[in-house]
Design brief:
80 residues; 4 helices; 59% helix
Length: 80
């Protein structure tokens, strides 16, 4: 699953993978349109539903946060 997430991020914007900060949006790596595209891609490729209230900075701050968030959501949804 992590490989799939990394591929999505790389295809969207390879800078995400090397970014070391804690706010992709503030630092201009991701814009609001890319966040929407990212949510759609993660949902489609991982078979998960990402509610709008979960699209917050802490879940999309950097690569590690995105991977952690998507894996956790997938585990929760696949368990139930």
């Amino acid at each position: 699953m992590e490989e799939t997430i990394i591929k999505i991020l790389k295809d969207m914007n390879s800078e995400i993978l090397s970014y070391k900060g804690d706010n992709l949006y503030r630092d201009g790596i991701l814009d609001s349109f890319q966040v929407i595209d990212l949510v759609a891609e993660l949902g489609e490729k991982l078979g998960i539903e990402i509610n709008p209230e979960l699209v917050v900075l802490e879940n999309f701050a950097n690569k590690d946060a995105i991977v952690r968030f998507a894996k956790k959501l997938a585990e929760e949804q696949n368990a139930g």
